[in-house]
Design brief:
The complex is a heterotrimer of chains A (about 700), B (about 100) and C (about 525). With about 700 residues, chain A is mainly α. Chain A is about 70% helix and about 5% strand. In chain A, the strands form 2 sheets. A two-stranded antiparallel sheet of chain A has the order 1-2. Chain A has a two-stranded antiparallel ribbon with strand order 3-4. In chain A, strand 3 (about 210) and strand 4 form a beta hairpin. With about 525 residues, chain C is mostly helical. In chain C, the strands form 2 sheets. Chain C has a two-stranded antiparallel sheet with strand order 1-2. Chain C has a two-stranded antiparallel ribbon with strand order 3-4. In chain C, about 65% of the residues are buried. Classes of the chains: A mainly alpha (about 700), B mainly alpha (about 100), C mainly alpha (about 525). At the A-B interface, helix 28 of A face helix 1 of B.
């Protein structure tokens, strides 16, 4: 019987078809290929919903699905691995499929307003790119093994290159696209080493074991790793201790995550990527590329739980990035730049949660962030259309009355981003911080107190970032929508058509309500059973990827303990910080004629405006180190290596030119030489004969 | 009473050396040709002498071949000398060195 | 056994075809040669479809389309015409015929003088390339191996760029000397085998070498040392063709001066002769010596990868960039071969095919751009994506293929090589592999940089030509190659199955920790 799981590949195949249709037939279509994309993503959304309902048990018992479907490389002979592509659908994947297809559908619709109505050229290429982007991300989400995940991870990178560089006639976008691909490629290098390492170590890259009628047909690598740590299985660890080697593997894969999820120090590509069309930014930030990194950690969480060191690194990187990026967002002048830094910062939170053992919190934040960040970007896109592609917030102001739909939805998203109760971001961010705090405190008293300390450091940075987040978010809102219009463009701005406002409305409602799926503090207060996401992730047909298993591993293997602590106190602290941030922004910028307050920061401002000189040193690494090295290699090659080759030829030619003088052209000389040589030979023979004889 | 083979060989060596001397010292192509003939005939003397010494006719047959070859060689040689004369207005071999390098 | 099988027919058709084309009038030569080249293409496709070989040609595998005809006897050695295909040579044969046809089509635009000679020589080159991959007797193989140089010499020297004579002579002498070195190595092996072989036949020699005690002394050199000496000579000889650092400097010159279709053949097939020979001689006949010296050999491979990529980074000429990156890509082949693991050797062989297609594709794309702009310098061109969208699209795809984008053949090949090398007996295998893998970052760096400068931005051109869309017959070969690259990347088993069949017997059953000689 064909169940819904047989159609899961179609979730990715539909946008892929849209890619082909848009690419080859887009120019013959009235909307230049958008039709294909909208229909395909709507289809994906429908299938994803069906899948999610099936996983949840609405259509029967709750199930999950994990199977290899396509043999990519068949190993022949002893010890040759067979590499397959397959589908893994568990609660996590189902949730993510839903998010990605929803956002992508809305982005396609929005693009009708942002691209078609603005009379852009090259639209078939644009929609083809969007289709491939969506398809790769969806396939990445349901990948059942690390290699397949890597393959689609790379395709996601390719699509980001194509879409960021969409306006290739200008100088900025191609450069930004190159940077995005190169920086993430640098991270992916480590990821690839990790993938190869995982396959070489465990002989499999499966995220979850494949079972057939209750018996395990193929084990997953996190499980094998767990057995190896417990001494029940042995794996090749290349001369390192088992635990150390697993930490190394985990950190290698983390390289790809840091690149794609724009974590410090590989975050530099993301702000530049704003050169791409705004709907693409929405897709990249909310649901596809950047989300891919964090999703990957969640996907192979069972492996990371085996290494507390790796977890601590994740938490520290996440907490640091959250604070670091938030401070940079404070001084940005352009709408999309602020949002870009907020994305980096928010993904830092997710990493913090994952590192601190807050798997559910991370997934929760991933979900809510997808909704409100897509909303904010699309809202920004709406403003940009109305402002005729002017992005500097200082040229805006007072758009509130002229663009009401955009304003109220944007406000909803901003409240969510700032973490104001009861909007989505509050619940998820609160849970992230709470998890970091309790696990930090709990672990502090155990043997792994170092890990606990790191978690608490991450928590402190994340907490501090709450203030900055609220501040820059509302600075953005006030500068854009409040006060007086500061330019003619802002005075003449009008609300956009349905294809812009409809996605905004959907997401605006979402940003206000998505948080209700997991209201931990309320649940604690009232005792009501409303922690839906917790329940959703705690169960599922595949035990190995449930939070039940994860919490056991967290406790037993990673040695990370949870302290007894109520959720209300920490929640109140973070809410207070967020409100303080909003209040500061209110006093500084919610005035008819706001002025740049950044000068008060003094030298700090220069540092922040230059993004802590992160770009500078990376550009220096590329242009100041690699290029001179390449030039030196070239000189060495031309001078020394080829010099030797040409030298040999010169020596031959030179000796030839000397020896040829023997050829005098006089027969007499030749005859004399022959005679002399013969005589010499005879003498030599005679002497040799005497010596030998 | 037959002559001792060594004398033939001495004669042959003498003729050969005269030919060699001619090649090493003369400049006229015609004299060259004659010197070469001398050297060839020195070889012929050797052939015949050894043939006589061993009582084997092969050497004499070979000397017949050599004579035929020498005739052919002279024909070619004279031809070359004629061309040489036409191109260089003389048959001095030291003049014709334009093709050396 | 019939005197002429399909392989002989293939060789005869291209040989006769080449001679006929040479006599044909110039204006028809291109089309005629292309049509003629369809015959070996169809033939090789048919052979691929009906391929029934199994195992390795040299180690007693079952050969497809084999034929043996005794020829002459020289002292104790018999020379015979011995040809056949196994899973390694079949894909390479296919690569040759496919690339030749496409290269011929891509010659229509750039070649506008002495056409009949050009196309005739291209077909003669195809003959000899096919011969190299099918020949199983050393002398037959050597004749083809050397004969490849003759058409190549003229193709570069007559139709090349400004420094064509220098490049052609350098290419010819360099590779010719290499052959001499290699020949000495092989001859020493055969003579030292003494009575255990009665011919120079490759399978016979390979199998004789597998038996311990067969190898005697040669001029007082003891067998273990002799193996090492022969291995070194063979390796040095073939390394020139591959090319491996430091024997690579003929390559950029030859590529830059050669006309585009010749570059395609040079990068696509000629370089594979080197790695193919390495696989056949060094890593099949003397695999134990290879195993014992893995550390040194892999160092050459890894160094070539990184060094070639760095050199490519420093170039301004698009063709030079691709040429140097070939050195980098061929380094992966060395790394894979020396790993001597199933996916290592298999992946290396797959990389030969993959690199043949992708580098051919990239050279052709550069050629199409050159046809329109008459320059290849990065600084001279900008923003041509506007004028020739399809060409640029394919160029982009080819470049990403080169960078190892999944679902294109380059990724499959590189991944398999890495997988094979990571878990091999190479000393510090994971570390060494990781260093080699860094090539994928550098390759992305220079290709993205070059593309940004040339394809994107505002349109501009330093030469006095007006860029317009390329003619259809220029773009079609690109599209065909791209489709092949994607097909092989999505389903490597199209050729990887037969490759593994043929390379699996080379994997040593017991890995010996590197450092000491086995024999």
């Amino acid at each position: 019987m064909a169940g819904v799981y047989d159609f899961v590949p179609a979730i990715a195949a539909l946008p892929f078809l849209a890619f082909l249709v848009s690419l080859f037939f887009g120019r013959y279509m009235p909307k230049r290929g958008a039709e294909a994309g909208v229909i395909a993503t709507a289809g994906s959304l429908g299938l994803s919903t069906w899948t999610a309902l099936t996983v949840a048990g609405f259509t029967g018992p709750a199930t999950s699905y994990n199977a290899n479907l396509y043999t990519w490389v068949q190993g022949v002979g002893d010890g040759a691995l067979t590499l397959s592509l397959g589908v893994l659908v568990d609660p996590l994947a189902a949730l993510m499929l839903l998010i990605v297809s929803l956002i992508s559908f809305l982005v396609h619709v929005f693009s009708l307003g942002y691209m078609n109505d603005e009379g852009e050229t090259g639209l078939p290429r644009y929609y083809a790119g969007l289709g491939l982007f969506t398809a790769s991300m969806l396939a990445f989400v349901f990948s059942n093994n690390l290699l397949m995940a890597f393959m689609f991870f790379e395709l996601v990178g390719l699509c980001s290159y194509l879409l960021i560089g969409f306006w290739f006639r200008d100088d900025g976008p191609p450069s930004a696209a190159k940077k995005a691909f190169l920086v993430t490629r640098f991270g992916d290098y480590f990821f690839l080493v990790g993938v190869v390492g995982v396959f070489a170590t465990f002989g499999t890259g499966l995220f979850a074991p494949i079972t057939d009628g209750g018996t395990v047909v193929a084990e997953s690598f996190p499980q094998v790793a767990e057995h190896a740590l417990g001494g029940e299985a042995s794996v090749e660890t290349f001369g390192l201790e088992t635990g150390t080697w697993f930490t190394v593997l985990g950190l290698l894969v983390l390289g790809g995550v840091i690149g794609k999820s724009a974590q410090f120090p590989l975050h530099t590509w993301l702000p530049d990527a704003m050169e791409g069309p705004t709907p693409v930014s929405a897709l990249i930030h909310a649901a596809t590329m950047v989300a891919a990194g964090v999703y990957l950690v969640a996907r192979m969480y069972g492996f990371y739980l085996l290494s507390p060191q790796a977890l601590a690194v994740i938490a520290l990187v996440g907490g640091f990035t959250a604070l670091f990026a938030a401070t940079m967002g404070v001084v940005k002048q352009e709408l999309k730049q602020v949002l870009a830094y907020s994305t980096i910062s928010q993904y830092g939170y997710m990493m913090l949660a994952l590192g601190a053992g807050g798997y559910t919190a991370a997934v929760f934040h991933l979900t809510t962030h997808a909704v409100f960040k897509a909303l904010l970007f699309l809202g920004a896109g709406s403003v940009i259309i109305a402002m005729h592609h002017e992005e500097n917030m200082w040229t805006m102001g007072g758009l509130k009355d002229r663009m009401p739909v955009t304003y109220y939805t944007f406000l909803s998203g901003s409240l969510a981003l700032a973490g104001i109760v009861p909007f989505a971001g509050f619940w998820s961010k609160d849970e992230v911080l709470f998890e970091a705090l309790v696990h930090g405190l709990g672990t502090l008293e155990t043997e792994a107190s170092m890990v606990g300390t790191l978690l608490l450091v991450g928590y402190a940075m994340g907490l501090l970032a709450v203030f900055f987040t609220a501040f820059y978010t509302f600075r953005m809102v006030f500068l854009t929508f409040h006060g007086d219009a500061r330019t003619d463009a802002a005075r003449d701005a009008t609300e956009n058509r349905w294809n812009v406002t409809f996605p905004l409305a959907v997401l605006g409602i979402g940003a206000a309500t998505v948080g209700f799926i997991n209201m931990v503090p309320v649940a604690e207060l009232t005792g009501a059973e409303i922690e839906f996401l917790h329940d959703w992730l705690a169960h599922g047909g595949i035990d190995a990827t449930t939070t039940e298993t994860y919490s056991e591993l967290l406790h037993d293997v990673a040695g990370i303990e949870a302290a007894e602590l109520g959720a209300l106190g920490p929640g109140a602290v973070s809410l207070a910080l967020a409100l303080a941030g909003v209040g500061t922004a209110w006093t500084l910028y919610n005035v008819p004629d706001p002025v740049e307050q950044t000068d008060k920061l003094g030298g700090l401002k220069t540092l922040l405006v230059h993004n802590y000189y992160q770009d500078e040193y990376q550009v220096w690494l590329a242009q100041g180190v690699t290029v001179p090295l390449a030039r030196a290699a070239d000189r060495f090659d031309q001078g020394v290596v080829d010099g030797v080759v040409n030298g040999i030829s010169s020596v031959s030619l030179f000796t030839g030119s000397r020896f040829r003088r023997i050829q005098s052209g006089l027969v007499t000389n030749y005859a004399a030489l022959m005679t002399l040589s013969l005589v010499l030979l005879l003498i030599v023979f005679v002497l040799a004969g005497e010596v030998m004889g | 009473m037959a002559v001792v083979t060594e004398y033939y060989l001495l004669l042959s060596a003498a003729v050969f050396c005269i030919g060699l001397y001619g090649i090493l010292t003369r400049e006229s192509a015609l004299l060259f040709l004659m010197s070469v003939e001398l050297m060839l005939n020195a070889a012929n003397i050797n052939f015949v002498a050894f043939s006589f010494y061993w009582g084997n006719l092969t050497g004499q047959v070979f000397s017949l071949f050599t004579m035929a070859l020498a005739a052919a060689e002279v024909a070619v040689g004279i031809g070359i000398i004629l061309v040489l004369y036409r191109n260089f207005e003389g048959i001095d071999v030291t003049e014709a060195a334009t093709m050396r390098w | 056994m019939p005197l002429a099988g399909p392989i002989e027919a293939l060789l005869a058709v291209t040989l006769v075809g080449g001679l006929v084309v040479m006599l044909a009038p110039d204006e028809h030569a291109g089309k005629l040669a292309t049509v003629i080249s369809l015959l070996p293409l169809a033939g090789s496709l048919w052979m691929y479809a009906t391929f029934e070989g199994a195992g390795n040609a040299l180690l007693g595998g079952e050969l497809a389309f084999e034929s043996t005809v005794g020829w002459v006897e020289l002292a104790a050695y018999e020379l015979s015409w011995h040809v056949g295909l196994d899973g390694v040579s079949m894909p390479l044969l296919l690569l040759t015929t496919v690339l030749t046809t496409l290269a011929l089509v891509s010659s229509w635009t750039p070649i506008d003088e002495r056409e009949s000679q050009f196309y005739g020589l291209m077909l003669l080159m195809e003959t000899s390339l096919i011969g190299v991959f099918v020949a199983l007797d050393f002398f037959v193989w050597l004749v083809f191996w050397e004969f490849v140089l003759v058409p190549m010499y003229f193709l570069i020297g007559v139709w090349g760029g400004p420094r064509r004579r220098y490049a052609a002579i350098k290419f010819f002498i360099y590779t010719n000397v290499a052959t001499l070195v290699m020949f000495v190595g092989y001859a020493a092996l055969v003579f030292a085998l003494g009575d255990s072989v009665s011919s120079f036949d490759l399978p016979a020699v390979a199998q004789a070498l597998q038996v311990q005690g067969n190898l005697g002394t040669f001029f007082g050199i003891e067998p273990p040392v002799l193996r090492l000496v022969a291995f070194t000579l063979l390796f040095a000889g073939f390394a020139v063709k591959v090319p491996v650092f430091p024997l690579h400097t003929w390559l950029p010159d030859a590529h830059v001066e050669a006309p585009t279709p010749v570059s395609v053949m040079l990068a696509g097939v000629l370089l594979k002769m080197g790695t193919y020979a390495l696989l056949r001689f060094n890593f099949t006949m003397l695999s134990d010596t290879a195993l014992a010296n893995e550390g040194i050999i892999v160092a050459f491979g890894v160094f070539s990868v990184i060094y070639g990529a760095l050199l490519a980074l420093a170039q301004q000429d698009l063709k030079r960039i691709v040429a140097y990156s070939s050195i980098s890509s061929m380094g992966y082949v060395i790394v894979g071969l020396v790993a001597l693991t199933p996916h290592g050797i298999g992946g290396a062989t797959f990389q030969m095919i993959s690199h043949g297609l992708i580098s051919g594709l990239l050279f052709m794309a550069v050629g199409v751009i050159y046809n329109e702009t008459h320059t290849r310098m990065v600084g001279d061109i900008s923003g041509i994506a506007d004028r020739m969208p399809w060409t640029v699209g394919v160029f982009l795809a080819a470049a990403f293929g080169y960078m190892g984008l999944p679902f294109m053949s380059g990724f499959a090949a590189e991944y398999l090589v890495f997988l094979g090398a990571f878990d091999s007996g190479i000393p510090y295998a994971p570390l060494v592999t990781a260093v080699a893998m860094f090539g994928i970052v550098v390759v992305a760096g220079y290709l993205l940089w070059a593309m940004q400068r040339t394809l994107f931005g505002e349109y501009g051109l330093a030469t006095d030509y007006d860029v317009s869309r390329a003619p259809v017959h220029d773009v079609v070969p690109l599209v065909v190659l791209l489709v092949l690259v994607i097909a092989l990347g999505s389903q490597p088993s199209l050729v990887y199955g037969m490759i593994q069949e043929a390379t699996a017997p080379l994997v040593p059953t017991t890995l010996v920790p590197g450092g000491e000689l086995l024999w």
